[in-house]
Amino acid sequence: MRHIRPVAVVAAALLLGVLAGCADQPAPEPSGTTMTVEEAKARALQLEDDVVAMIPAEIVANVDQRTKMRLSNCEEVEDGVTWPGETVVTFTTAQDGDALVQSIKKKLEATDPARLELDRPSDKYDRVSVGTKDGAMLIISSGADDGLTLTIASYSPCVQLAEGQSRFKDY
Fold first, then answer.
1. CA–CA separation, 117 vs 88, rounded Å?
2. What gap in Å lies between CA 66 and CA 41, rounded to an integer?
3. Are 150 and 50 in contact (CB under 8 A)?
4. Model-level pTM?
5. What CA–CA distances, in Å, run from 152 to 27, 33, 135?
6. In 48, 139, 150, 161, which residue has its Cα 20 to 30 A from 122's Cα atom?
C-alpha cells in the first residue's frame, strides 16, 4: 500500500484552487490576431506618420516612407508575422538629433504608450523605443552623425496570415 505524503496533497489542492479560479476568466487574445496584414501595415504606417507630425514642419525637407516591405516573423502569435516599416525624415539644415529625439519622446509620453525607453546604443546617438498597447513598436533614432536625418522604424502588431498569403511576398 502506498502512502500519500501530506505535502503532495496540499500542493495538489492549491493547484486545483488556482486552476478553478482561472476557469472563470477568459484567456486574453494575443496581440493583433484579429488584424489582417493590410490593417497591421496601415497601423505601422500611421504610427510613423504620427511621429513625423511631431517634428516642426519648417525643418523638414523630405519624408521618405517605405510602403512595400517583406514581412518579418514574430512570436506573439503562432506562425505570426509583423509588417516592418521605415520612414526617413531629411531636414533642411543639420539638427541636434539627440534633442529632437528627446523632444519626440516627451510628446510620445502623452500618448500613454505601453512602453517607452530612451537609450544610447554604441555611445553615438539617442534612440527612443516605443511599445504600443496593441503590440506595435517604433524605434526612433537620429543615427546619422551629420544631423540631417531621423529614422523611424516601425513594427506592426503581430498577426496571422490569411489563407493563401505568403510571408515571402512584399506587402
1. 20
2. 11
3. no
4. 0.77
5. 33, 24, 17
6. 48
